Amino acid sequence: MTSKEFVKELLKELEPIRRAHAEITEDFYSRPRTREQTVALLMDRCYRELQGALRIAEQVPRFVEADRDLFHMITRQVADEARHYHLLASILEELLGRPLTASELKPVPLTLEQNRAMYDEYGFHLVERFASLGLGAEYLSAAINDVVIKRAEPEVAHAYKQINRDERFHAKIGILGLERYATTPELQERARQAALRTAELHLRAYEQLFQAVRAMG
Predict the structure, then answer these.
(1) Integer Cα distance of 141 and 112 in angstroms
(2) What are the tens digits of pLDDT across the range 164-183?
(3) Percent share of the chain, pLDDT over 70
(4) Model confidence over 92-141: pLDDT tens digits?
(5) What are phi and psi of 111, to 5 degrees?
(6) Rounded to 5, what percent of the chain is helix, strand, coil?
(7) Which CATH number is 200's domain given?
(8) What DSSP assignment string belongs to 171-199?
(9) 140: left (phi over 0), alpha (psi -120 to 50) or beta
């Protein structure tokens, strides 16, 4: 199949996982949260944004010669992730009533496992990078954020309105990368496996995060 046909099929395959992300987020936000629970939740999500800025920045030089269009888009993504980190860290400082250091950001273990897959395992192969990060993570984060915008605290919802516009753009980077480079059955299968494994880790990480935060109550 063509690379565009492949991307359409992959998005169909990811649809049940996308719905599952929305469902677990709806369930989590259906109950009241304490300030401490909101802090714990945002600590993980803020860590994700910081690591996104740092680790994606490491990838930028590889695209200077390979693809100027994607070089430009990925460079913008680094700035987006840094802005997301700044937004969430500012909310955390308001909630804590004091300055926040990056070393305080404590993710759940499965967030670390997901990051290892995205950045260390899949981050060095062209199609695996776009599949894992763009479709296995960013595309699914948008489904979570759609719920957050409707159900979270006003300051958190406002931040995620800004963040989610960028997340959709980041997913489009993944789609464009696959449409350009997932051109053979072998490359398409590598992309498929990277996207599906990352998507499963992404879902499990958020399940673990929501369970840990809920247990605090």
Answers:
(1) 16
(2) 999 999 999 999 999 999 99
(3) 100
(4) 999 999 999 999 999 999 999 999 999 999 999 999 999 999 999 999 99
(5) -65, -40
(6) 85, 0, 15
(7) 1.20.910.10
(8) HHHHHHHHHHH--SHHHHHHHHHHHHHHH
(9) alpha
CB atoms under 10 Å from CB of 65, counted, come to 8
* 195 phi/psi in degrees, rounded to 5: -65, -45
d(CA 46, CA 44): 5
Parent domain of 207:
3-215
The count of structural domains within the chain is 1
Helix axes 139-151, 185-215, angle to 10 degrees: 30
Quick one: CA dihedral 87, 89, 94, 98, positive or negative? negative
Residue type, 69: D
C-alpha 45/C-alpha 87 separation (Å) is: 11
CA–CA distance, 105 with 63 (Å, rounded to integer): 30
Residue 66 confidence (pLDDT)? 82
In three-state secondary structure terms, 119 is helix
Residue 135, Cβ density class (10 Å: 0-12 exposed, 13-18 middle, ≥19 buried): buried
* Ramachandran area for residue 153 (φ above 0: left; ψ -120 to 50: alpha; else beta): beta
Average pLDDT over residues 58-84: 93
First to last CA, the chain: 50
